[in-house]
């Protein structure tokens, strides 16, 4: 496991299966610049990070989204931490519709599928079989995401399986007939200080939460990303996928900044034993 305090403490699930997966799939790693000071960090008199300092900006004057991000589970009134030792999952990790009255608006064909996946504790989850996670799911998992932001490109690096995503800010149109991919095709524009990303062409054989909800190849996702201050990111997501859902739905995800840390190799297939141990078909 990692030299960090176990990143799995953030899991708010009692699923013993998930614990088993982690024990069987994680390979040994070495520290990779953990503790190396992040440059230009605003700090308070006590040396802690001023997470409410002003939002950093690019030369263009637009917010700079660069940084390492993880789900923010700060309790109301509490001080937001900035370390890379406590890496929680999001409140919506198991169920993206947890805060929605009635839950996600599944089409009838999808309801029994999600129920089965929930009842069997996600035994066939692509994530635990080492398949890359799409970006929507990655936001909620306890793996750090590194945003590298320039004037015309936002690159998101995922320490899980060394994944990456490209969001183009050069005004290009989305493809008319995209070949589905794990992260789809993303183009973005600014609405004031909010980056608005439209994505299509995500593969429909991946999940968006532990319960087994999906996004099909016909779906369209809009993310409205706002860096509220130095240490907080708000991502308002709207999913419009008439094949899987009866209406468009939205959810807001909160992220916090991680400083004085760095991504750690976390390659699921290295020493993976889960499928063999559970006698599952490949």
Mean pLDDT metric: 88
Shape: globular
Give the CA-CA distance, first to last residue. 25 Å
**Nearest-angstrom radius of gyration?**
19 Å
How many discrete domains? Answer: 1
Number of beta-strand segments: 9
**Amount of beta strand:** 15-25%
Low confidence ranges: 1-30
DSSP summary: helix tally:
4
Which structural class should the secondary elements be placed in? mainly beta
How do the helices and strands follow one another from N- to C-terminus? HEHHEEEEEEEEH
Strand arrangement across the biggest beta sheet: 1-2-3-4-5-6-7-8-9
Helical coverage, percent range: under 10%
- Main beta-sheet strand count, sense and barrel state: 9 strands, mixed, barrel
Description:
By secondary structure, the protein is mostly beta strands. It is built from four helices and nine strands. The protein has one domain (7-277). The longest helix is centred in the N-terminal third of the chain and has 10 residues, at 16-25. Mean pLDDT is 88; it is low at 1-30.
At a glance:
With 282 residues, the chain is mainly beta. The chain is 10% helix and 22% strand.
What are the key terms here?
nine-stranded mixed β-barrel, 282 residues, mainly beta, disordered N terminus, 22% strand, 10% helix, single chain, globular
Produce the secondary structure layout.
Layout: H1 16-25, E1 67-71, H2 111-119, H3 135-138, E2 145-149, E3 153-158, E4 163-168, E5 185-191, E6 194-200, E7 220-227, E8 232-240, E9 249-258, H4 274-277
Parallel strand pairs: 4-5
Antiparallel strand pairs: 1-2, 1-9, 2-3, 3-4, 5-6, 6-7, 7-8, 8-9
């Amino acid at each position: 496991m990692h030299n960090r305090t176990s990143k799995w403490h953030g899991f708010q699930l009692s699923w013993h299966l998930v614990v088993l997966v982690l024990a069987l799939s994680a390979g040994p790693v070495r520290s990779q610049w953990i503790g190396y000071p992040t440059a230009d960090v605003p700090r308070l008199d006590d040396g802690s990070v001023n997470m409410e300092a002003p939002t950093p900006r690019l030369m263009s004057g637009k917010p700079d989204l660069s940084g390492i991000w993880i789900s923010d589970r700060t309790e109301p009134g509490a001080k937001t931490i900035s370390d890379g030792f406590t890496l929680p999952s999001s409140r919506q990790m198991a169920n993206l519709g947890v805060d929605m009255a009635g839950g996600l608006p599944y089409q009838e064909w999808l309801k029994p599928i999600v129920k089965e996946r929930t009842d069997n504790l996600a035994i066939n989850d692509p994530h635990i079989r080492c398949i890359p996670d799409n970006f929507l799911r990655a936001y909620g998992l306890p793996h750090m995401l590194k945003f590298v932001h320039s004037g015309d490109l936002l690159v998101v690096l995922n320490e899980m399986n060394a994944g990456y995503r490209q969001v183009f800010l050069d005004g290009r149109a989305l493809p008319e007939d995209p070949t589905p991919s794990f992260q789809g095709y993303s183009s973005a524009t600014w609405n004031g200080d909010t980056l608005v990303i439209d994505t299509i062409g995500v593969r429909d054989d991946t999940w968006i939460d532990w319960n087994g909800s999906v996004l099909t190849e016909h779906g369209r996702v809009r993310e409205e990303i706002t860096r509220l201050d130095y240490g907080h990111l708000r991502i308002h997501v709207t999913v419009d996928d008439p094949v899987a859902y009866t209406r468009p739905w939205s959810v807001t995800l909160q992220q916090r900044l991680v400083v004085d840390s760095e991504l750690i190799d976390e390659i699921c297939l290295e020493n993976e034993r889960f499928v063999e141990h559970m006698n599952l078909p490949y």
